[in-house]
Structure formats: structure tokens, C-alpha cells
Amino acid sequence: MTVLSTIASAADNPWDMWNTTTNPQTAGAFMGVAIVTCLIFALAWFIIWILVAIWVYKDANKRGKNGVLWLIIVILLGLIGLIIYLVVRGEKTEPSRHCPNCGRGIPEDARSCPYCNKKFEE
To answer: Is the pLDDT of residue 8 over 60?
Structure first.
């Protein structure tokens, strides 16, 4: 509707539609488009950042670190927190003992597998 009224008002002089002093609807239309565009970019950035924070949490847990602590650090410090995590995260630790039944890594002092509940001989 706004676009049609802008085009109709600019029919006399095509350059007059950019003059927001004589055509305030044009200024409102441009402001509306700018606000919607900013909101879309902000929402996309927020969703991407939440996905990055979830990845940091899962990666920290896999590496034997405190996932919740790193999640909070990355959320609070943003890109700086992510860079700090990537620098200090270290190598992935592989468990030295594996379950003979399911093959997953288990703690050294486990008497049974936490995944398949297979009992081990002492």
C-alpha cells in the first residue's frame, strides 16, 4: 500500500519520491524496511550464537572439561570467550579402557559398563 502511494505521488516528478520532506510516507517505508532488516539480522546472529554455545558445551564435555562453565564463558564473553576456548581446549582425551561388549570408552575403575551394563571380572 505504501509503495503504491509512493509511486502514485511520484508520477509527476520521478525524483520527487526520494524527497522525504514533501513525501513523509517514503521515509516511513524506508524506516520500516530498515527496522525489519535489522531485526532479521539480529535474530539470525542470535540463533547462530546459541548453536555455537551448544557446540562448545558438547565439545567441552567430550574433552573432559566442564561444559557448563565453558558455555557460560562463551555466552558472557562472546567471540573473545570462543577464541579463549579454542586456544585452551586441548586435545581430545581417549579413554584407555574400553568395554569388551559394546566397545565404548569407560572409566578405569568401573565394575560395569555405564552404557550396556556388562559386569566385569575383577
So the answer is: no
